[in-house]
Amino acid sequence: MNYLYILWGFLILSGLGAVLGVLLVLAEKLFHVEEDPRIAEVEKLLPNGNCGACGFPGCHGMAEALVNGSVKKCSTCKVGKKDKNFDPIIVYLATHPDKDGTKHVPTL
User: What's this model's pTM, rounded to 2 decimal places?
Assistant: First the structure.
């Protein structure tokens, strides 16, 4: 058995791994998408049941729809409570408008 073959295989695979790793880092920097920080805050205020009863795949989808204004009623979330979940969401979205200043404040 020739140890030179093992060394060449190791060097080629290591080099390939390093090149692909650098390409992944560059792709992450190039294609980075900034998400609205209000989505994460509204998601924390939801009950986090991820049940899908609202028609969205989970609480993150519901939070995104509330922030974007595509859902007008907080009560679309079936497991949420008015005092614990919906009122804080309405207050938060009323006090934190979009970057352009428009407010998408849902109702109950």
Answer: 0.69
pLDDT of residue 73: 85
Tens of pLDDT, residue by residue over 61-89, are: 888 988 888 888 888 888 888 888 888 88
Residue 66, amino acid:
L
Those residues with Cβ within 8 angstroms of residue 49's Cβ, 6 or more apart along the chain or in another chain: 59, 79
Please say whether the beta carbons of 88 and 45 come within 8 A: yes
Distances (CA, A) of 61 to 6, 31, 56, 90: 50, 21, 6, 17
Most distant CA pair in the chain: distance in Å? 75
What tokens does 38 get? Answer: 């209000």
- What is the DSSP code (8-state) at residue 72? -
Residue 37 sits at φ, ψ, to 5 deg, of -65, -15
Q: What b/e readout covers 54-90, taking b as 16+ CB neighbours within 10 angstroms?
A: bebeebbbbbbbbbeeebeebebbeebeeeebbebbb
